Amino acid sequence: MRDTPGPWRGQRRAGPGAAVIAALCFHVFGAWKLAGAVPPPGDLVAYVLLLAGPLALGWRRRAPIAVLVVAAGTAIGFAALTTPRWTYAVASVTALFTAVKAGRRRPAVTVAGVGWLAWVLITGPFAVPLGLAPPAHTDVRNALLVAAGLVVTVLLGGAAKARAEHFAEIMKVRAERARAHEEQERRQASEERLRIARELHDVLGHHLSLINVQAGVGLHLMDSRPEQAREALSAIKTASAEALREVRAVLGVLRPEEEAAPRQPALGLDRLAELTADAGLPVTTTTCGERRDLPAEVDRAAYRIVQEALTNVRRHAAPGATAQVTVEYATDELRLSVRNDGATPSPGSGAAHAGALEGNGIVGMRARAEALGGTVHAGPEGGGGFVVTAALPTAAVAARGGA
């Protein structure tokens, strides 16, 4: 048998064989101590009555009431042959306890009451008419003691039933908690995979777009201006190295604990100057308000939103476009604005430009901002330009992180 989990860890549930052996020992050794009152070896009926009750306990969990009837009947039959003794009632008490614990309290009490009354009548008023030997006669004191023992057995069986139900409820609650914990872990793992996917999209989209622009410039200037072509190749090398480094940083969350942690600084607005310098187009940065430390998730989200917005400018704005990045440190939030003043590739294509952007990063920006309780808005401006604005709460995120 395996150990019972929970607060009763280490306890073992006794099998049917243990109860049978214990009852047999009480019945047999109790009969031996009666010396002359024990039936002679040839009295087969007496020994059948003595042993039938304990042996029937082997089926007490399958048919508790039937076993109780057999145990009580054989105990009464043997008691009519010899001196009353409590050891003959062990099998009956065990059967009564099991029946009450199994939820059969009413029929068990009925059988016990009828058996007690039958025993009192047989060994009391009807003992002489039935020709019972004087040692088998009982008195009022013994009758009351047996009745009290039966009542205590019923109460103990009810308490054991309540304890078993309480334990089953505890195990049910623990199983529900375990399932809820597993579901939460799966949900967190799914959210983490989504976050990693967004990080990789931002990193690869930004740097591959920059490499594509610089490669085009290098090919165009290869013959006429080799020095500028060399600068473009150098920019490609730098952008590719930066992309590899950022990919490693993003995938660092999957790194086993025994491996060394990334030594590069975390992505945030502290590295905004590097981002705008490698944007592949002229970028002007303006900071409003007093700079302060931001929650890590807000800082990282702000960097990614600016990065994705600049990538979209480079992809969709006409050649010669410039961008203006504004970072405003408000009281309870961080506000971002990325504008480009270049015309769209074809006249009247502002709506098309906005639609293209919706499929190339704006959705990801909004998901990143909404995860923090913020907002992102994007749309064309007069003159053919395009603007992306974002508002990221800082106080609420910081409070949630502290909690």
Describe the structure in your own words.
This protein is an alpha+beta fold and 403 residues long. Among the domains are: 6-138, no CATH class; 266-403, Heat Shock Protein 90 (2-Layer Sandwich), CATH 3.30.565. 60% of the residues lie in helices and 9% in strands. The chain contains 11 helices and 5 strands. The chain has helices at residues 16-32, 44-56, 64-79, 90-101, 105-123, 140-221, 226-250, 272-277, 296-316, 350-370, 395-402; strands at residues 283-288, 323-329, 333-340, 375-380, 386-393. The protein has a 5-stranded mixed sheet with strand order 1-2-3-5-4. α9 links the parallel β1 (283-288) and β2. α1 (16-32) packs antiparallel against α2, α3 packs antiparallel against α4 and α3 runs parallel beside α5. Residues 1-12 and 345-359 have low confidence and may be disordered.
Shape: rod-shaped
How does CATH name the architecture of the domain at 266-403?
2-Layer Sandwich
Query: Averaging pLDDT over every residue, what do you get?
Result: 76
Radius of gyration: 44 Å
Descriptive key words:
single chain; 403 residues; alpha+beta; Heat Shock Protein 90; five-stranded mixed β-sheet; rod-shaped
Short structural summary:
By secondary structure, this protein is an alpha+beta fold. The chain has helices spanning 16-32, 44-56, 64-79, 90-101, 105-123, 140-221, 226-250, 272-277, 296-316, 350-370, 395-402, and strands at residues 283-288, 323-329, 333-340, 375-380, 386-393. Strand 1 (283-288), helix 9 and strand 2 (323-329) form a beta-alpha-beta unit.
